[in-house]
Amino acid sequence: MATTSDIKKGLCIKFNHDIYKIIEFLHVKPGKGPAFVRTKLKSVTTGKILDNTFSAGHKIEDVRVETHKFQYLYPEGDTYHFMNTEDYNQITLQKSTLDAPDLMKEGEVVTILINTEDGMPLSVEMPSHVILEITHTEPGVKGNTATNATKPATVETGARINVPLFINEGDKVKIDTEKGVYTERIKE
Predict the structure, then answer these.
(1) How confident is the model at residue 69 (pLDDT cuts 50, 70, 90)?
(2) β-strand pairing of 2-3 with 181-186
(3) How confident is the model at residue 142 (pLDDT cuts 50, 70, 90)?
């Protein structure tokens, strides 16, 4: 058993007869009244996100997990195939368990959290940034450079993001996987 002081991003807990992963949390100490923790929880079985508030010191049942490196192989409908980089065993996961499936390209190495009780995969943690190539974007209009102007672009995985006007087709860009936003252009 853990308490609210053990809450951190990525912790898996049992809550409402399901297993949830904490994706955001905030410890709040108001001037009046007891402290509490606001959390955003994502169900590892359904992908549903809910907000919950725990009072300070509340007991939570954490789930013991192991992390393993897996290489993303290919998608097949709503299932995604991965291979363990240590023993080469393959597993398939549903699209709902992935945080940013549209930013994952074949060959990408990800970390998969596995429940130690039953060996079931719980969630997939992407690297913090990925480098993808722009496959389609409209050319930027010269002189149309007001503050931070952006345009839509499609990357090699099919995801759509907004990029600055100076980005062209064929450019490689670094994308923050947590927010799904452009961070910088990669020079070759």
Answers:
(1) very high
(2) unpaired
(3) low
The secondary structure of 67-102 as a DSSP string is EEEEEEEEEETTEEEEEETTT--EEEEEGGGBS-GG
Instruction: List, in sequence order, the alpha helices (H) in 41-117.
Output: none
Contact (Cβ atoms closer than 8 angstroms) between residue 37 and residue 28: yes
Amino acid at 157: T
Query: What does the block give as tokens for 182?
Result: 């452009």
List, in order of start, the domains of the chain with CATH numbers. Answer: 2-62 (2.30.30.30), 65-125 (2.40.50.140), 129-186 (2.40.50.140)
Report the alpha-carbon distance of residue 64 to residue 183 in Å, rounded. Answer: 34
Q: What are φ and ψ of residue 66, in 5° steps?
A: -115, 150
Examine the pLDDT at 145 and tell me if it is beyond 70.
Answer: no
Query: Do residues 132 and 165 lie in contact, with contact meaning Cβ atoms separated by under 8 Å?
Result: no
Q: Are 107 and 72 in contact (CB under 8 A)?
A: yes
Question: CB under 8 Å to 120, separation ≥6 — which residues?
Answer: 114
Dist. CA 163–CA 182, nearest whole Å? 6
- Between β-strands 36-43 and 121-125, what pairing exists: parallel, antiparallel or unpaired? unpaired
